[in-house]
Amino acid sequence: MKRLFSNLKVLVVFCLFFALLCGCATKIKYPSQKRIVKSGAGTKAWKSKRPGSKIISGPVRYAKMTQHSSELAARRLAASSQDMRSWRKLGPQIRKSIEYIQRNPSGGFALKRKELRLTWGQLRRSLEDLERLLPRLDKNPELLGRYFVWYELQSGAEMTGYYTPVIDASLTKTGPYKYPVYRVPPDLRKARPGQTHPWSEQLRKAYRVENGKILPYHSRRAIDINKVLAGRGLEVAWLKDPVDLFYMHVQGGGVLRLPDGRYRTAVFSGTNGLSFSGLGSIMYRKGVLPKSQLSREKIKRYLLNNPGRMWELMAENKSYIFFKITRGQPLGAIGKPLMSKVSLATDPKLIPLGSIVSFRTDIYPEKGRPSRRVNGVGLAQDTGKAIRGARLDYYIGTGNQFKYAAHHLKTKVPVYLLVSRSALRR
User: How many CA atoms lie within 13 A of 162 on its CB side?
Assistant: First the structure.
């Protein structure tokens, strides 16, 4: 009995010692999967306000909204904010996106991201469903939330504006019309689909062969300053304002007003494949103008007042665009005319061409007038060299009356990618 009691004492002492040891053990705190950053802290990640006045950072990604949230968002939509009397007006433009998508394999991926994958067939089905729904949206816009899944771009997107300028031009070199618009040169070559080369990706986009050597195609400096294309019969039109010509390259096209009052359209036809640099960033980087003076009007005024520096500064943008002259309307990347207040230029890797996009922004129609709220449905129908990542370029319209609105649109906006529920069930 004494031996049993002694063994019990040893067991109790051992248990007490083990409990004390565990209580003194260091507790390991595992970090939260969400990175919380202070407001105003520098980070390459996006920042989005959440309940509790905290800011959660993370990569650009899509998140599926609930049906209830989608319907609430859809109720804010207004066709009138996009200068349409009815949502039915979207029908012909939707059909243009469908015609573009039909050129792609139905089962191929239009969007291939970790959090969201969509095929061309699903985008087409979404457009067809939207087209059928249009007659009912005027009275019940919330149907767009009921029949479509809304994927919110968590980072939002920077929205800028663009328009098709009307530029004075001539089809022949005469008087003040002395700055050439070039067509695609015959020596500009492009790699065939699937073709590989032992040189850089840049050269695979456009190159030339000279004395048996493969070289990058001519830069803006070589074309504008060294005149390497002059006298080869490549001129399709002539402008009298060199800065207007530069910005026509940036816009990717323009409407030309001829001396006799007729109009022609300069349509994007090709590029030299070299890197694009914005004129504002060039002038800021070189200390020519401060940030507060980088509006397009002030940039143009400086260049025209300083012709000695004008060509050198513009040549810093190596990219060069070639055009063809037509009688039709300006075309987007889908090969179809754009629609004012509806068409969007996007980065296809994030928002594929043919996508349905909802957004909310404010535009300033004219100087001195108040802003105008747009709760809209847009169609991704264009692209641009400067449009990369979470960025939208909103097409304001054709004509110089849209210049102010386009140049004064630069803001962060909420963005939603809309996919029909029936398309997701396929």
Answer: 25
